[in-house]
Design a protein that fits this description.
The protein has 271 residues and is α/β, with parallel strands linked by helices. It has eight helices and seven strands; from the N terminus they run E-H-E-E-H-E-H-E-H-H-E-H-H-H-E. GO terms for molecular function: oxidoreductase activity.
Amino acid sequence: MRLANRTFLISGGSSGLGFASVTELLKADAFVAILDKLPPSNIEDSSNPSTTSGSLSRLMYVRVDLTIISEIEYAVQQVVSWTNSTGAPLGGLINGAGVAVGGQIVNRIGEMHSVRDWEHLLAVNLSGTFHLTRLVASHLVHVQKEDTPDGERGVIIMISSSSAYEGQAGQVGYAATKGAILSMTLPMARDLARHNIRVVTIVPSPFETPMTNSFFSEKTDTSLKNNVMLYPRRYGLPQEFAATVRWILECAYVNGESFRLSGGARVPAVL
């Protein structure tokens, strides 16, 4: 897909992997709509040339709570109206929003997993992704096909996690939501193939993001970097994630797949 003068929605685009994807797409001359609960705090950072001067005219922010369907509907409609005014048709969606809340099914003192935390994980990570995707896809199916042999209309990217494969103790809720996203990938790609829309999921191991930094203890963080990360022996960088997003968008033959982005890391049962 050609990225220039196409519009992409990025949920969770105000920080972390989402914001890195925003800056990467702006560099490609795309239009980007950030959907998040808070606006980006560093959007006019002078050290980030992709988010200064003229590129800001290709950027919009819409506040949205992914646990409220009416807010998702409003946000998508706002972006669609924006595409009508800019003349930059929809190109796709990057589902970057997510939450990580720990909790064992029953912990060492006999307390059960919080129902509230479980439902919040499902609401944001799974239902939020599902509802935003179906709403964006309902507009993508009407976008004019690209003037290429493949006649592509758009791309949906979802974000899973290595926890879907190797979830740790205390990640039962988080792993469940990320595993469900893996399971949605192929059937969704099959649903949308008739409309010339691709669906791809990225499965990252830990990346240097605020969510990662808040989720792992110092001990776990050290153990991961020293004993689990294969090569390079570090967490992934947001710009490496963003480069993967761009490759998926531009490579028309990538469809119905889930890609591990892990540096070869496989997380053991005990860290």
